[in-house]
Amino acid sequence: MSDAPRSKPSTRNPETTALVIAAHPDDGDFGCAGYVSQLAAKGWDVHFLVCTNGAKGTEDRAMTRERLIALRQEEQREACRRMGARGVFFLDYEDGELVYSRAFLGDLVRSIRRLRPHTVLTHDPTDIIILDSFINHPDHRAAGTAALDAVYPTARDHLNFPEHLAEGLEPHKVREILLWNSNHPNFDVDITAELETKIHALSAHATQFANKQEFVEFARESWKSPDGRYLERFRRLTLAF
Predict the structure, then answer these.
(1) Structural domains for the chain
(2) What is the rounded CA–CA span in Å between residue 199 and residue 209?
(3) Contact at 8 Å (CB) between 86 and 127?
């Protein structure tokens, strides 16, 4: 586990703190980099938690596993800098083999209790097929499911992972969840002004895009709405209690 928040709860304002929980490096950038840029510009502290080590995802036969892990983690750090996120933590579970476990759930709960976010942004784990156009990666489904369970009910109850209390980590209630890549979006964010920032952040992931120009063209079309605006679309849940 590298860079993971493990002790000393945050002293920052929970009302302006957000946590992005992503299965892989670049997932959060695809899902919400535009909105993250907006929040950062408003003074929010946005943190990224990447669940896997990024050991997969290259067509370069000469690339070693260890080198790819190091590169992808640095790419994610640079992407976070570009979008204005405060920082990124890595849990280092094996890429492509992420499964729901008590240990994984505990890591997410610890991070929520440590950072105390108002808003959690993560994968929608509900469906295997997304928008009739692609398959929801099993790592995405595992990360999204565990993130939702961490938010409710696990992070709220001191009897769940009571060992966290010894680390000074009190229960915490997240107030808002935003799920990207959802078949049931109900919350649109206009990112027209942030589109170039989003593309710039994603471009930091050089190991993932062999042809940068093709990627930029793909990106411009992916978030373009029929009325010409660029949108990030989420399934939004507000937790009132």
Answers:
(1) 14-238 (3.40.50.10320)
(2) 12
(3) no
Q: Please report how the helices 195-203 and 65-83 are oriented relative to each other, as an axis angle in degrees rounded to 10.
A: 160
- Rounded Cα distance, 14 and 119, in Å: 9
The angle subtended at Cα 34 by Cα 78 and Cα 187, nearest 5°, is 145
CA distances from 95 to 3, 16, 23, 185, 238 (A): 17, 31, 8, 27, 31
According to DSSP, residue 237 is labeled E
Overall pTM surpassing 0.85 (yes/no): yes
pLDDT digits (tens, 9 = 90+) for 81-132: 999 999 999 999 999 999 999 999 999 999 999 999 999 999 999 999 999 9
Task: Report the alpha-carbon distance of residue 42 to residue 64 in Å, rounded.
Answer: 40
B/e letters for 146-183, b = 16+ CB within 10 Å, e = fewer, are bbbbbbeebbbeeebbeebeeeebebbebbbbbbbbbe
Closest residue by Cα to residue 106 from 166, 48, 162 = 162
Q: Contact, 30 vs 231, CB < 8 A?
A: no
